[in-house]
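Can't attach files on this board, so I'm pasting raw text. These are the components:
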Amino acid sequence: MTADASRGAEAPPELIQLLTPEGERVEHPDYDIDLTPEEVRGLYRDLTLVRRVDLEAVALQRQGELGLWASLLGQEAAQIGSGRALTEADMAFPTYREHGVAWCRGVDPVNLLGLFRGVNHGGWDPAEHNFHLYTIVIGSQTLHAVGYAMGIQRDGAEAASIVYFGDGATSQGDVNEAFIWASVFNAPVVFFCQNNQWAISEPLEKQTRIPLYRRASGFGFPGVRVDGNDVFACLAVTRKALAEARSGQGPMLIEAFTYRMGAHTTSDDPTRYRVAAELEGWKLKDPIERVRAYMFKNQIADQDFFDAIDAEADELGRDVRKRCLALPDPEPLAIFDHVYVEPHSLMDAERAEFATYLEGFEA
Amino acid sequence: MKEFKLPDVGEGLTEAEIVRWHVKVGDPVKVNQTIVEIETAKAVVELPCPFEGVVAALMVDEGEIVDVGRPIISVDDGAGPEAPVAERSAALADDMVPVPPAEVRQPVLVGYGVKPGAAKRRPRKPSPSGISPTGTPPADAAAGSWSSEAVPSGVREGGAGTAAPPTSVAVLAKPPVRKLARDLGIDLTTLTGTGPHGSITRDDVQAAVGTTTARPQATTVTREMQDEERIPIRGVRKATAQAMVASAFTAPHVTEFLQVDMTETMDAVRRLRDLPDFAEVKVSPLLLVAKAVLVAARRHPMINSVWDEARQEIVVKHRVNLGIAAATPRGLLVPNVKDAHLLSLPGLAGALGALAETARAGRTQPADMAGGTITITNVGVFGVDAGTPILNPGESAILAFGQVRDMPWVVDGQVVPRRVCTLAVSFDHRVVDGEIGSLFLRDVGAMLEDPLRMLAWA
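---
Top answer:
Structure tokens for the assembled complex are below.
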């Protein structure tokens, strides 16, 4: 360790960026990306549609149709960029805010709404989508992801796992334990930290004295900070990190530097702890606007394309609303269905007892 | 016709205040268009409309506190009268029996809360003898916490006529209900609960207030209700009361007064108004008072400091976030001008104007009120000369600025009419002694008597 590295806090943090907030394409010596116009249009569509689903979900919560919703507003690029970097065989472990990653993994947004409506426990098969169920407990999924990655290692499979967590989670014991296990076992896992600057109401400076990505070096693996509002950079950096993990080069920490533009959840009021000027500053770095500007400048898309995407987004919003309202309440006994994979005698006894109780009512 | 019921927007809230309607009767509305702002215990929230159509009626007024689940707006969607089966309870079968309508509204996580009186429950099959309703033998059930002992089965089945009253085992009531009963002097053991499992609800307690004789004042209740109006303490009123009590009983206050001749200041105000730099902003005597306070605070930094009891330190603030007490539609608020010491005079005028406008519009955000270091309260606007202001918590000084009026004044041995006002400064005697407090007040007064001193001392 050089003296310079040990005093790392004093060097300015490096931010990997391939697309500026103004929509200018810039080069980076270590990371590059070559996207076809079709791929760029696809990313724009992803970003726009997940934002629209998110808006609809917030509205549904405000209309009493969801108990809660954790908005991803502002973090679309971090999620779509990293989500699109995954291959089918890779496994993703989300928090409760990864609606964009879920989209990339082919999970129907209505399933996400069902969880927050209280009619299912996620409702998708993690094995089918290689997308784990939402985890509410902060940071615990990092350990699951490392365990999964160690399994991949032992299977000799051509895959990696990626785990999502926030800046607040980096203060959790689980996350630090996961770093150690991943490092020591050289597990094929990518730690994808969306640093959205706020752990509910706690600002970043109360979580760390150094840029979060530099924590990795203390655990013995590389860490980088990427512009989390730059979908190109998030895609490039995550792709490379996953490729390295799959090829046996071990874990990596990616700090996607972004901003939670909405409330922590619909139960939160951010005006109580942060100033409006901060949000205004980040609006200028909007993850979707810069892609739009880039596409316009480079004639990758015309107004018709943008209009069509907006129309598709509105139709998606309407569809999600309609299907959310039509979600059936679950059968009471369904609560026992997926607790254990194998037969389980205590579960069977409890199920039977509850069934008897239910039968005690007239039809 | 569709009705939108006030939803629970924050995990277990039971009520909200209607702050402002964004639509009026006859307006066309779209799905997700913002129709109303509400204030809950947690936040001010904008509600999006769930329907498309034309607003047929606003069913509650601004300022009203509304229970979750109450219809607040009806929208004509061209579909005729609303069929109630459209609700989520559509799945409930017709043969379900209503539970007696005594349940109070309970917070739930999703939707509109529990509807009072409308909950339905399927009737139980008659229990075979010796088998408790849970289907387990009584011997096992006795081991359960509430299975058969604590809750008489009749009560659990919906308060049917045969229900035995709760025995002396334990009174079931949630802590807030217990507190309410204690506050009202109601003995919970004398009540029959109508809530879940026979628990005593808030409504039970309130119903008992009207009938019970356990309360000595009970006979005068009716009379009192005619002679008085009882206003629930909530919102800004509650916050103000808590802050003032906390301040008055933690910081030992000292108040000093000074009468000053404001004639020169009033003249300066008039001349400033003619300068092009001030064309866009409001110039008032308060601007020069604020400037004088900023200059004086710099000369006496202890005035802009705070007592940190926990750490046993006095924290001298280098930044001045200048609070201005404002009477607003929501009550007394003290928003502050951040880093007021760095502002130019036109900048300060602009900031004071913006702050007042935001406060008047009722749009002051909590962040605007946080972090104040010293406060001015302009009691003159109410037509009084002086007061003994109470410190804004977390600060060590507050200046009350009285009305400016013509008074006889002695100038060069002659009694002449001058523009005079009274300044009062309260300070926290733990931090500021009489000497510093007096120097501060004297400096503010001197600058207002001769505004040129602001230039000299700034």
